[in-house]
Automatic annotation (TrEMBL):
Organism: Caenorhabditis remanei
Primary role: Structural component of the gap junctions.
Membrane topology category: Multi-pass membrane protein
Main location class: other
Entry-linked Pfam families: Innexin
Spans traversing the lipid bilayer: 114-136, 198-219, 284-308
Gene Ontology cellular-component annotations: gap junction; plasma membrane
Similarity annotation: Belongs to the pannexin family.
The organism's place on the tree of life at top rank: Eukaryota
Biological processes, Gene Ontology terms: monoatomic ion transmembrane transport; positive regulation of nematode male tail tip morphogenesis
InterPro entries the record matches: Innexin
Name of this chain's protein: Innexin
Length: 408
């Protein structure tokens, strides 16, 4: 139980992504872990498989057969199949051999003993993208989780809050604004500068999308079904009142064949088994299939949406403009100043982090952060904003003052 609690606490939602990210790595992972734990507990506490044995089976013999049928695969034979009645009739063993072999190959049930591991593997795959994301933004020197948590903690006294906001604003904008004057001297703007965190986040989005699509392939192979739309087919059968005896979907009653060597002879035995665990497997996997459909649509839409949000400076400017206009109404008459603020002072990572802070902490800390950055921008780059690049000798005092300020 402690292991499960530790796992659930490890996948708790963190303020380093949006709602769709939390659906993938938190909600889905927790659901899969709980389902895996339930099936595992039922396998140990309950009876995942019971078999009907003839009267001449002794206690140890029945025990051996039961264990064998659990670890090996069973196969489903519809009750309308006449051959099933003679599958354990030794007089017709040779005649039924070919038919039974065909049934074993086409209707084999080989997943019930692996369900806890399948669900655990799926949980790992859903959590893997966010691990990569956190590893990458840690390597980039931006602890996004701590950053958003710090913004939440700024609701203290006025002086402490302003100091914290100023520190955060300087930290998330330092990679771009330290080189601002140098860019003006050369007249060159590196558009790719300061986008490591953003690129890592988009990479995580792609991993989430690939993973949710991969889950359909994984379930198809693990469950041995013929179609990727098996979840809809099972749901349609249940809605129409067609239960497992007719459809063979997650059958509760299966057949098990095993061989016993006795000196020079090999005796083949067939028994009928009840897979009680399939009552739960059906509900879990059908619900999971529909959840994956929902998650695939949401993740695909969200991924395209984020790529559009970071597609260019104009989109970033539309995000920043309302905040700056509230802070400095005069900027409405000076679009060049706003353009320079977004394109040169704020890096793509800075705008992205501001978006995450808005998603997780609201607009209040974003207003204060942009206000502090706007002040730094006006200090570093005084008007006129449409003037040509400064000469090196004219920019030296400005560069020194700006570096002194950012080091404070």
């Amino acid at each position: 139980m402690n292991v499960i609690q530790n796992l659930l606490s490890a996948v708790s939602p963190q303020p380093d992504g949006d709602f769709v990210d939390k659906l993938n790595y938190c909600a889905t992972t927790i659901g899969l872990v709980l389902s895996s734990a339930f099936i595992t507990g039922w396998s140990f506490v309950g009876s995942p498989i019971d078999c009907w044995f003839p009267a001449y089976y002794k206690g140890w013999w029945a025990e051996y057969a039961l264990d064998y049928c659990y670890v090996q695969n069973t196969f489903f034979v519809p009750f309308s199949e006449d051959k099933a009645e003679r599958s354990y009739n030794w007089e017709h063993l040779i005649a039924d051999k070919q038919n039974t072999t065909s049934l074993k190959q086409t209707n084999q049930i080989g997943y019930y003993q692996w369900v806890p591991f399948i669900l655990a593997l799926q949980a790992i795959l859903f959590y893997f993208p966010v691990v990569i994301w956190r590893l990458f933004y840690g390597m980039a020197g931006q602890n996004v989780t701590s950053l958003c948590n710090t913004c939440t903690a700024t609701e203290g006294n006025e002086e402490s809050r302003k100091s914290t906001i100023s520190t955060i604003a300087g930290f998330i904008s330092q990679k771009r604004n330290r080189n601002l004057v140098v860019k003006q001297l050369s007249g060159f703007q590196n558009r790719a500068n300061g986008s490591a965190v953003l690129t890592s986040y988009l990479f995580m989005k792609i991993l989430f999308l690939i993973n949710v699509l991969l889950q359909f392939f994984l379930l198809k192979r693990m469950l041995g079904v013929d179609s990727y739309f098996w979840g809809a087919e099972v749901t349609a059968d249940l809605w129409a009142g067609n239960e497992w005896p007719e459809t063979g979907n997650f059958p509760r009653v299966t057949m098990c064949e095993y061989e016993v060597r006795n000196l020079d002879n090999i005796h083949k035995h067939s028994v009928q088994c009840v897979l009680m665990i399939n009552m739960f497997n059906e509900k879990i996997f059908v619900a999971l299939w529909w959840w994956l459909c929902f998650l695939a649509v949401v993740t695909l839409s969200n991924t395209f949406y984020w790529f559009w949000r970071v597609s260019g400076t104009s989109v970033s400017k539309n995000f920043i403009r309302p905040y700056v206009e509230d802070i400095d109404p005069k900027v409405k008459n000076n679009r060049g100043k706003l353009q320079q603020f977004v394109s040169e002072f704020l890096s793509p990572d800075t705008v992205f982090l501001l978006r995450l802070i808005e998603l997780n902490n609201g607009k209040t800390p974003v207003v204060e952060l942009i206000r502090d950055m706007w002040r730094r921008f006006n200090t570093a780059v005084p008007p006129p904003y449409s003037a040509p690049p400064l000469l090196v000798k004219d920019a030296a005092p400005l560069l020194k003052n700006f570096q002194d300020e950012t080091e404070m």
